[in-house]
Amino acid sequence: MTTQPACLPTPQPLLSRTGWALFLSAVVAICAIAPLLNLALPPDSPLHMSDYLVALLGKIMCYAICALAMDLIWGYTGILSLGHGLFFALGGYVMGMYLMRQIGRDGNYKSDLPDFMVFLDWKELPWHWALSDSFVATLILIVAVPGLVAFVFGYFAFRSRIKGVYFSIITQALTFALMLLFFRNETGFGGNNGFTDFKRILGMPLATPEMRMSLFVMTGLSLLGFYLMARYLVCSKFGRVLQAIRDAEGRVMFSGYNPLGYKLTIWVISAVMCAVAGALYVPQVGIINPSEMSPAQSIEIAIWAAVGGRATLIGPIVGAFAVNGAKSWLTVAAPEVWLYFLGALFIAVTLFLPGGIMGLLRNPRSLLRAWQQRRKGL
Q1: N or C, which terminus of the chain has less Cβ within 10 Å?
Q2: So where are the chain's domains?
């Protein structure tokens, strides 16, 4: 009796031909078309891209990176985090500290210390501001600080086999606890006002069209780069193990794999992605405060991923643009309706579109089928 050799799955290409074409089109749009429409065309041109739109799209692209990070940990690993807003804010605070040091003596009090420290009668910088005047050290800390927090928390949580709703509650509690800590003036993070009034980065003024467009391009390229990295991860053996952990963690352990290392690795990668998004967000928006750590912010990240479609990578990006685009319009047109709309959207997606927007695009009849199933259930 002969035995057939085991057939390993054929490695998937990183992107299809159509995918590469769309990817390169996005690169051209971010690096060439957007700067041309914003900087070269006059403001009275119908094709001019306003500074407001540049800032709005840059902010949404930062959110899209967070949604992509959420998809890696929730969509592909089955771990729902309600604390990713913490990592986003930590990256933002590290960048904010550097930008505050860049103000120099141009603040209201003409001091080497940030204005809020002078107001609180601080005489010197606290120890955790020691490297905040170095851009290179700032880049390292943007990755290292959230990565270390994520590693320590994830190690003890996953080692204790905390999962499901319990893990979600703990991540939300961690975020809320650190938000309260950052609200305190004595911690040296600006209290409830946070950091603002930024003026320069690398010695160059922030409030110029050229700098705004440079940050826009950097954010867009970061989003595309993280998307390629995520595609590489989920198409590899590492990604297949993550999906196996999501579907049946007990069987993965029975097969000889230790889920701890896999879950911890993707958890830290996801946290660092959010931190980079936060660091790109702060110079474009011009402020960072503890409200970015609020539980509602982390819940919104999960909503973007759910609305776009989990375990699709492109879906959460689409969801971030769709939800935040609607938010930008509704908060002006009908601000009192926005939160009701967001809640109704999440309920509707959960009940009728479990595959999100991408699931509807792939199978337009899925919405009708879900509606019929719900009617039968009633």
Answers
A1: N
A2: 23-293
